[in-house]
Amino acid sequence: MKLLTPCVxxxxxxxxxxxxxxxxxxxxxYWSSNTARLWGANIYQQVDAQDRTKWGPLLxxxxxxxxxxxGANYVNFSVPGPFDVVSGRCNADDWRxxxxxxxxxKAAKLKVVxxxxxxxxxxxxxxxxxxxxxxxxxxxxxxxxxxxxxxxxQTVAKEFANEPAVVGFDLxxxxxxPVDSNEYAxxxxxxxxxxxxxxxxxxxxxxxxxxxxxxxxAWAAAADLNDADGRDPMAPxxxxxxxxxxxxxCAVHQYRPDDYTQKALGPxxxxxxxxxxxxxxxxxxxxxxxxxxxxxxxxxxxRDACCAALFLSKELSLLRTQNLNxxxxxxxxxxxxxxxxxxxxxxxxxxxxVRADWQANAAPRQPDRKDQKARTRPASHSARxxxxxxxxxxxxxxxxxxxxxxxxxxxPELKKPIPVADAQAExxxxxxxxxxxxxxxxxxxxxxxxxxxxxxxxxxEAAAPAVPDDGHSRAIGFWPKDKQLLFTQSTAIxxxxxxxxAVGSNFNSFLYQTSTNRSNKGxxxxxxxxxxxxxxxxxxxxxxxDWSLCNHRHIRQVPVCxxxxxVFPITVQGLKRKGLLVVNQTRLITGTTWKNCVYLGVFDxxxxxxxxxxxxxxxxxxxxxxxxxxxxYGFWGPEIETFQDLKSPINAMGFTGCWMIQDGxxxxxxxxxxxxxxxxxxxxxxxKTPNRDFLVD
Length: 697
Description:
The model is unreliable at 1-22, 364-402 and 454-468 (pLDDT under 50). The strands form four sheets. Strands 11, 12, 14, 19, 20, 21, 22, 24, 25, 27 and 28 form an eleven-stranded mixed sheet that branches. An eight-stranded parallel sheet has the order 9-8-7-6-5-4-1-10, covered by helices on one side. Strands 18-17-16-15-23-13-26 form a seven-stranded antiparallel sheet, with helices on both faces. By secondary structure, it is of the alpha/beta class. Helix 6 runs parallel beside helix 8 and helix 11 (308-321) runs parallel beside helix 12. 24% of the residues lie in helices and 25% in strands.
């Protein structure tokens, strides 16, 4: 599968990290240090279902080289054990695969932790639940496979004890209770604790000083370090106890909140409550275990979860604050047959988040291979926007010849082309996104992403009773019909936003008068009303939110009071309001390079005299099909969107003069291509025309 272009900082070259421990002789120093020394990702392998001699998905040397190139210094191999699950004998193919992958990682200058998912008496299904489960290793103290488990680790220790690239042996991935028990009872039985203790002795019998990672029972969950699920309220708490031994590391995993990270269910909790609570268990546990280092060698989030990159960035920040060695799940291989649900490598925004974390730990290093490739092709969208948002302080008068957007725009209402002037630098100076506090910006990003998840949630939520202030997006307006208003090379929406000075009613959140232009990576250019209680509602602002960016998508924020040149008086249905003529355009430049442009109309004595280009951003896709609308992106048309129910009429607002211009063809919005959308949250459409002019109150 061709990988998406990563969100890198274009022409700014980053250097490979010389892990602060590259000179370390004793691998224990990687774990016992008071600072994080290892940061990287998991690579997952399992025995191929069709060919027992192979592991899959197909790992190649370049997968590890790319991991190192991205800034990691450590790979957590989550792989099958080399001894067979049923027979308990060493499997030559599994042994060969393990040695080859360690050799490739060493050649890529990555440190390695070997973590076994399977072992004699424990199969992959005990983790994934995809097939009949075998787990006598964990449940039957008399199982002959326990001795085979020790023999497997003796064999591994003998092979890798003196290999400097291997800095850890992780005994078993995610041990846990059987389905007919609970985690509290299983922990109390000490089944896994005792098996792990003997495995540690088996490794040390080979004179191996390699650090040993022991994952706690209860799925190695960080949240269960100090107690376990299933405890009777009258029973005492039961913290995980490490087996006896030296050079031991407690290796935990973190997937709270589980439904969000593993099933992509629900909106993002912008307080990150479950996440922070889970990670706070680590320092609490260490108070009683001060000599045992803790690492988080598995954590992640599904790519399709709402605001996944925002969540992952927060989690990485919390892990960095605790100085924990860490490995994200998952750096997926380039095999096109594999599942990419958690893949941080293929998702540009997740990639940007982990890469920023890895670089924050890195000393100066050599140029990233991906950045070197970027220098041979048009700059990525994030490169252009970072260069641009440093701020062009040169005062420039609007001049058609200086504009990098279209020099003329066809206006379908006037049926003639209108000249375009460049006002991007001036508009940037007017913008002040930094006025919003960081928490407010995170909330804005989360709410914007909830709009993107909304289309797929509507059918699911239709049968459930409405919750008045659940924080979800809700809207009223006109949405494009399925398979209507599609395009090949360009798409734009042209409309006049009709808005009052204030929302009124019981407004206490966000309200947007917005629309997409039907592009997947386009911008939203809209009027925004905000209220951060207990403060009073803020005056209206004009926002640009660019979906082609991976981070900092809230790219422009200008108070309406600074926009006298573009805001004009308008009367609709006898109501005097303010108007703003917006053209929001996305067009193909060349190859797979696109550009988002936002234009605002300039009027003189009630006549449109020109458009001002106030924002543009070029970016490159892997394939132009990524630009098409789908069930998550580009599906909404002109609408009023908010995040609460409104208990009384608001001050009337809406849209007039709504057109699409696609592939050079003007298209009036009408019943053939759009339909009314109403989520019944207190607003009513009291005025509408066949061409989708409308007002709500």
